[in-house]
Backbone:
């Protein structure tokens, strides 16, 4: 009878040990492979439902847009200038001159613009535009443009001939000097100006009094003119 009790106890112990072993295996499986599998399945189901839902727009996203300046002077002799351009996906423009905001303008999201900007200072001025979409808060700046304000006329000196000169030569040499980056025309014909501003050309004369007009113009549109009277008579 005791032998029977001992055998039963051994079987019970083995059964319990087997149960515990199987339970440990199941728990290990759940917390390793099973847990990861469950997590991945949950994510997959959540993404599947999310794809069928309407997407909300993140207001901080910088949406695609553009702003382009179509026309702007490189130099001017006026304290103001006109800038024109086009923009896409922006509805507010801010104009900056020498790092100061000088004007703000609301505009249609996709449109062209023309604006007069003032208060240039003598010499170089830096200018750019900032475009903003007031709904999405996205912004974009244009490149920085340099605009030169030059209000004074260019220098124009004539070294030869002298006004009211008389000559028996049918062709004379006209020499002079001006500032750098100045265009010279003599009797409406362009003349080459060297790197330091000197110029020289020949002019053919007709019998009697000849009018020679020398014009100097710079990139800002300033013009200086001089007129010579030369009398040609053959020997």
Residues:
């Amino acid at each position: 009878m005791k032998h029977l009790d001992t055998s039963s106890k051994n079987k019970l112990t083995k059964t319990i040990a087997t149960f515990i072993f199987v339970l440990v295996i199941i728990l290990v499986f759940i917390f390793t492979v099973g847990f990861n599998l469950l997590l991945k399945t949950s994510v997959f189901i959540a993404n599947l439902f999310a794809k069928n839902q309407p997407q909300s727009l993140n207001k901080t996203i910088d949406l695609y847009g553009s702003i382009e300046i179509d026309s702007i002077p490189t130099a001017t002799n006026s304290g103001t200038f006109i800038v024109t351009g086009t923009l896409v996906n922006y509805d507010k423009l801010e104009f900056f001159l020498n790092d100061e905001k000088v004007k703000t303008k609301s505009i249609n999201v996709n449109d062209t613009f023309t604006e007069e900007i003032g208060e240039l200072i003598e010499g170089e001025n830096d200018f750019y535009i900032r475009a903003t979409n007031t709904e999405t808060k996205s912004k974009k700046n244009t490149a920085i443009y340099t605009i030169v304000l030059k209000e004074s006329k260019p220098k124009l000196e004539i070294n030869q001939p002298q006004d009211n000169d008389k000559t028996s030569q049918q062709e004379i040499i006209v020499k002079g000097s001006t500032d750098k980056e100045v265009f010279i025309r003599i009797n409406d014909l362009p003349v080459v100006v060297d790197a330091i501003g000197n110029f020289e050309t020949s002019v053919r004369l007709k019998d009697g009094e000849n009018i020679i007009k020398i014009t100097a113009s710079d990139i800002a549109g300033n013009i200086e003119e001089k007129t010579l009277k030369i009398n040609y008579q053959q020997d």
User: Anything to note?
Assistant: Residues 46 and 188 are 79 Å apart (CA to CA).
